[in-house]
Amino acid sequence: MLRSLYSGISGMKANQIKLDVIGNNVANVGTTAFKSGRARFKDMLSQNMTPAMAPSINTGGINPSQVGLGVRVAGIDTLVTQGMMQPTSNNLDFAIDGEGFFIVARGVADYNPGKSINIDEANHVIKNTNNIETMYTRDGSFTLDESGNLITGDGYRVMGYSVTSASDPGKVQSLNPGGVVRYVDANKTDLQAVGAAGDVYMVPLKIPEKIVESVTDPVSGVTTDKEIRVKSFSIEKNGLIKGVLEDGRVTVLGQMASASFRNPAGLSKLGSNLYQVSANSGEPVIKSGIGSASDNTKGYGDILQGLLEMSNVDLAEQFTEMIVTSRAFQASAKVISTGDEILQDILNIKR
């Protein structure tokens, strides 16, 4: 049987897969923060007809005679280049300009150390997830649920840091156990992410309708909790979320967390613009919270509000690749039809 028949089949199969990748790229040209794929080919095993021979006294060396047995897909790469920033004027839309992924989670998460994600502050790695499923995304089109939790379109909670003041950690804390958002003066210079014993606690972020402030009566000395309405909020480039209160003061509501990877192209795609750690992506390196003694924030991009990162698919490139792939598929099919004609000629010899 002719080897060219099977080489043609391998070419058709490989180009079918490449066309699948191109089709997926084109279909996701409008998908928020989508990262395009690329199919790579490699040749199959080559069959030796005659081996190579070294030079001798009387003759020179002879190269090996080999016949290739076709092609196969070497890999499908994810291209993690930055997509274009699209203004949306929605204060719940966020984009990362540079390196990093938003951290989202599913599970029984709380604001207590035993029910949150514990981060090793010195090494910037996740120390304990407490059975909370953690995923990563570049899609910052978030919404709020009825409790004010910042969530993705599929209901996964956006993770970040609770913020307190080092000068008064017992009374001033933006997210205390139980999820109550307390007043934190945004003008304080000693703001820090909440943690203990070298760990920082990553908790679900909340944009509340009201915050709670402890007020002490100057006459009686009795301290009571007072609710104050939050008029609006904004996020700074370092992820610090600030809210403007009805009396004009500014409070800190928390800080959005982000992560990076040694090999982001190695992340596993879960669908819904979510990624998961794989065996070749490396463990996530967590961006340090505000006030951390071990600061690594310079290695991450800025978080921008009111923008979304668009798909990085280049349509002109995809259509060009589509033409090349289509022609390569036709050429492989032509090899099969030509091989069939040769077999027919061989059969006709008997006649």
Overview of the molecule:
- This protein is 17% helix and 36% strand.
- It folds into 2 domains: 3-53 and 63-80 and 313-348, no CATH class; 87-309, no CATH class.
- Helix 1 runs antiparallel to helix 2 (315-348).
- The strands form 8 sheets. Strands 7, 8, 9, 10, 14, 17, 18, 19, 20, 21, 22, 23 and 26 form a 13-stranded antiparallel sheet that branches.
- With 351 residues, it is an alpha+beta fold.
- It has 2 helices and 28 strands.
- The mean pLDDT is 90.
Descriptive terms for the model:
three-stranded antiparallel sheet, alpha+beta, 2 helices, 351 residues, single chain
Number of strands: 28
Q: How many DSSP helices?
A: 2
Strand-pairing-aware structural class = alpha+beta
Specify the helix fraction band.
10-25%
Mean pLDDT: 90
Q: What form results from the Cα inertia axes?
A: elongated
What does the radius of gyration come to? 29 Å
Termini Cα gap:
20 Å
Provide the low-confidence segments as ranges: none
Order of helices and strands: HEEEEEEEEEEEEEEEEEEEEEEEEEEEEH
